Amino acid sequence: MQLDKDLQSLQAMRHAVRRAKEAQQEFKGYSQEQVDRIVKAMADAAYEQAHQLARLAVEETGLGIVEHKTIKNQVGSKDVYESIAGVKTVGIVRELPEEKVVEIASPFGVIAGIVPVTNPTSTAIFKSLIALKARNAIVFSPHPSAARCTVEAARICQQAAVAAGAPEGIIGWIEEPTMDATEGLMKHRDVNLILSTGGSGLVRAAYSSGKPAYGVGPGNVPVYIEKTANVAQAVRRIIDSKTFDNGTICASEQAVIADRNIREQALRAFRNNGAYILSEEEKKKVEDVISPVRGKLNSAIVGKKAAVIAEMAGIRVPKETTLLLAEETEVGKNIPFSIEKLSPILAFYTVNGWQEGSDLCERLLALGGRGHTLSLHTEDTEVARTLALRLPVSRILVNTPSALGAVGATTGLAASLTLGCGTFGGNITSDNLTAHHLMNLKRLAYGTKDIAVPKPGSGVPDRGQAKLQMKGEEEQIEQAVAQVLAKIGPVGKIDKQTVATLVDKVLAQL
Predict the structure, then answer these.
(1) How large is the angle between the packed helices 32-48 and 66-74, nearest 10 degrees?
(2) What number of CA atoms fall less than 13 Å from residue 108's CA on the CB side?
(3) Under 8 Å between Cβ of 352 and 259
(4) Active site residue 421
(5) 240 and 333 part of one domain
(6) Distances from the Cα of 509 to the Cαs of 126, 173, 477, 479, 487, in angstroms?
(7) Residue 253 belongs to what H/E stretch?
(8) Deepest of 238, 360, 362, 494, by most Cβ within 10 A of its Cβ?
(9) Quick one: what percent of the chain has pLDDT higher than 90?
(10) Based on the domain organization, do 140 and 265 belong to the same domain?
(11) What are residue 200's phi and psi, to 5 degrees?
(12) Mean pLDDT of the chain
């Protein structure tokens, strides 16, 4: 019965949280050396199983490409580990001697990890690594359609962590997730933070749970090919990115915007790289497959190959077709090619110069990608900087495949599979989330100046006058010291008695 499954799922969630809390109470006392050894063991184990986990994910979900999911798992393990390996997360992590401030790391506690169907194993690996690096425990709620592969990724990380010295239960999961169990996890009194990657409904639920939460929004990434770009190279990069894991990364390009004077060159390059350019009649058929109910994406096309989607639309295309491309002029929720498609389908727009291109990018982002990512191909530094200043996005990627650049695989951005959209997209951060987002920083601060506190009734305090007075006193001290030093000549070895005499003389001058 469904009720039995719901109850079992709730009980499994509560048991996992209880064990995680107990484990984290022990784990928070570990040294930096112990933590780093555990995190490295997890990364090594996950990297070793990257291909096997990718195969499990494709078999279970039916989404994506095994070889590409393998790369995602490698980025989520090795690249993420390398990006956080040297980060201090235990005890004193930074000292600012000039400000007399000492920063001390403190873990959050138990984290609820919400995992999407599009990137299940890589997200579980990544979140496990950054959670434990900051001395937290984590409990996963997988997407029901990706539960087995997500749990297997979490289990591999848990076993490696325990073998390296972590307490049992430091990584937990809901084996058979339900919506009630997921919502219960997010609201559990012993959960201290929610780390949510998934659909907009789950992200909204995370933010409304009453807990601190990191949630990430959708992409709908525009890619602008500006007139100075190396067009052939730009198109190859776009196709590599858009077809990577059949377009399931939220940072993959959704609409191409090309300057008019390179339009034909760009279309020719797409054809030469296996893209199938739809006729008007074919475009209408694909529109009905993208969005049978206008404004909503058909989940059946997510992560599917271009040829499969064409067949769903009743269109015959070459088997080796890399992606489906259609020319578009309109933008709106009722325009299927202009929304986020999470599959190898691209809209193609033509504009007259970067100002028009910038305006069109903003309109596309407003459909659901505000705060996420803009992809840009140009050799004009000023255009790149101008668009970066103008557009409401957190990542502006130049001359690189967007899907890989956004997660830090081909750029200097932090390696991450959870990409913040800032307040543009209703998120608390615009960063690529990593270990330092999962710990508190306590600050030990020493006094650096004295302030004269006026007595009640003495009038309105004049801070400016107080500053002048303090400055005058400092100048008097400097003058007195200069006078004393002038009397004793060049400074050589000075004994304690001489120092005491000097201090007395300075005080007498004041």
Answers:
(1) 170
(2) 26
(3) yes
(4) no
(5) yes
(6) 65, 72, 8, 9, 14
(7) strand 253-259
(8) 238
(9) 81
(10) no
(11) -60, -30
(12) 92
pLDDT top residue among 487 and 63: 63
For 408, other C-beta atoms within 10 Å of its C-beta total 20
Alpha carbons within 13 angstroms on the beta-carbon side of residue 413 total: 27
In a domain, 370, yes or no: yes
pLDDT at 201: 76
Tokens representing 220? 């709908």
Please list, in sequence order, all residues whose beta carbon lies within 8 angstroms of the beta carbon of residue 416, skipping any fewer than 6 positions away: 80, 126, 407, 408, 432, 433, 434
Q: Which of 247, 210, 31 is nearest to 119 (CA)?
A: 247
Q: Is residue 464 over pLDDT 80?
A: no
CATH code of the domain covering residue 264: 3.40.309.10
What amino acid occupies position 30? Y
Q: Are residues 235 and 209 in the same domain?
A: no
Of these residues, 157, 250, 361, 421, which one is catalytic? 250
275 shares a domain with 245: yes
Task: Examine the domain organization and report whether 403 and 473 are in the same domain.
Answer: no
CA–CA gap between residue 136 and residue 142 (Å, rounded): 19
Query: In this predicted model, what pLDDT tens digit does every residue of 160-182 receive, in sequence order?
Result: 999 999 999 999 999 999 999 99
Of the candidates 36, 23, 37, 296, the residue with the CA atom closest to the CA atom of residue 170: 23
Full domain range(s) for residue 487: 465-509
Query: What is the model's pTM?
Result: 0.87
Query: Taking the CB of residue 377, how many other CB atoms lie within 10 A of it?
Result: 25
Whether residue 455 lies inside any domain: the answer is: no
User: How large is the angle between the packed helices 179-187 and 2-27, nearest 10 degrees?
Assistant: 30
Task: Say which amino acid occupies 84.
Answer: I
Dihedral of the CA atoms 359, 399, 238, 234 (nearest 10)? 100
CB distance 74 to 417 below 8 Å: no
365 vs 371: CA distance, rounded Å: 8
* Number of domains making up the chain: 3
- Tell me which H or E stretch contains 386: helix 381-390
Asked whether residue 227 falls in the same domain as residue 251, the answer is yes
Categorize the per-residue pLDDT at 209 as very low, low, confident or very high, splitting at 50, 70 and 90. Answer: confident
Q: Is residue 454 in some structural domain?
A: no
CATH code, domain carrying 9: 3.40.605.10
The pLDDT-based confidence of 419 (bands split at 50, 70, 90) is very high
Residue 421 counted as domain residue: no
Confidence of residue 131 (pLDDT cuts 50, 70, 90): very high
Pairing of strands 439-445, 101-107: antiparallel
Cβ proximity of 196 and 212 under 8 Å: no
The H-or-E segment that residue 477 falls in is helix 463-488
Are residues 370 and 256 both part of a single domain?
Answer: yes
Query: Are 253 and 207 in a shared domain?
Result: no
